[in-house]
Automatic annotation (TrEMBL):
SMART domains associated with the record: REC (SM00448), Trans_reg_C (SM00862)
Domain Response regulatory: 2-116
Keywords: DNA-binding, Phosphoprotein, Transcription, Transcription regulation, Two-component regulatory system
InterPro entries linked: CheY-like_superfamily (IPR011006), OmpR/PhoB-type_DNA-bd (IPR001867), Sig_transdc_resp-reg_receiver (IPR001789), WalR-like (IPR039420), WH-like_DNA-bd_sf (IPR036388)
Annotated PANTHER family: REGULATOR OF RPOS
GO cellular component: cytosol; protein-DNA complex
Domain OmpR/PhoB-type: 124-221
Protein name: DNA-binding response regulator
Name of one Pfam family that matches: Trans_reg_C
One record GO biological process: regulation of DNA-templated transcription
Superkingdom as given in the UniProt entry: Bacteria
Stored SUPFAM superfamilies: CheY-like
Modified residues (4-aspartylphosphate): 51
């Protein structure tokens, strides 16, 4: 597995790379934001570890530009800024996960493995409700025939909602099953639910993703979307 590490702190970059290489990952280190952006765009990586504070372009700018360029490689953002609003901003711009510094290498490794595991799962079918169709083989979402781009984490969340259509799913359940982290902030889940609604509901005048107050969320069929 090929990992791109965009980190301008030489000591930390060496420690991360050494640890990952001992786990048989191939690691490319880039220390500048602009160079990191081009390396991510032009290279064939399975995962990007992206520092927030970088010279040239910061991590948020890089993340936004990569997603605008339709690059779907999972991004794990690393930052000393660990406030909720910082995490939410990074996730909103397309990061798949966010790890606050300082961190233990074992936690970083666990998150790396989780993201790579999600990326490599074989897909062979499609999930559908009404005209909303998620092609699991092509990683392609369409609604009323219109193709809708999704980030990696949005895809994971929508896939799980479709797999459990009609069921009420708590934030804890979504954290454990979609993020594979029971301690993920509820606000993070709310952000992704909102992002999906902006893509699959608002443009089409539907209400497929419902909030069940005090319990969580559920995705319903078009025929039952108004039954709260």
């Amino acid at each position: 597995m090929r990992i791109l590490l965009i980190e301008d702190e030489p000591k930390l970059a060496r420690l991360i790379a050494q640890g990952l290489e001992e786990e048989s990952y191939w690691v490319e280190i880039v220390k500048d934001g602009k160079a990191g952006f081009h390396a991510a765009l032009m290279g064939e990586h399975d995962l990007i570890l992206l520092d927030l504070m970088l010279p040239g372009l910061d991590g948020l700018q890089i993340c936004r530009k990569l997603r605008e360029a339709k690059l779907e490689t999972p991004i794990l953002m690393l930052s000393a800024r660990g406030q909720v609003q910082d995490r939410v901003q990074g996730l909103n711009l397309g990061a798949d996960d966010y790890l606050a510094k300082p961190f233990e290498f074992d936690e970083l490794l666990a998150r790396v493995r989780a993201l790579l595991r999600r990326q490599s799962k074989a897909k062979s079918t499609a999930l559908q409700t009404g005209t909303l169709k998620l092609d699991l083989q092509a990683h392609r979402l369409t609604h009323e025939g219109v193709e809708i781009p999704l980030t990696q984490q949005e895809y994971r969340l929508l896939e799980y909602l479709l797999q459990h259509q009609g069921q009420i799913l708590s934030r804890l359940q979504l954290a454990e099953r979609v993020w594979e982290d029971p301690e993920v902030a509820p606000a993070t889940i709310d952000v992704y639910i909102s992002y999906l609604r902006q893509k699959i509901d608002k443009p089409f005048g539907t209400h497929l993703i419902q909030t069940v107050r005090g319990l969580g969320y559920r995705l319903v069929s078009p025929e039952t979307q108004m039954d709260l």
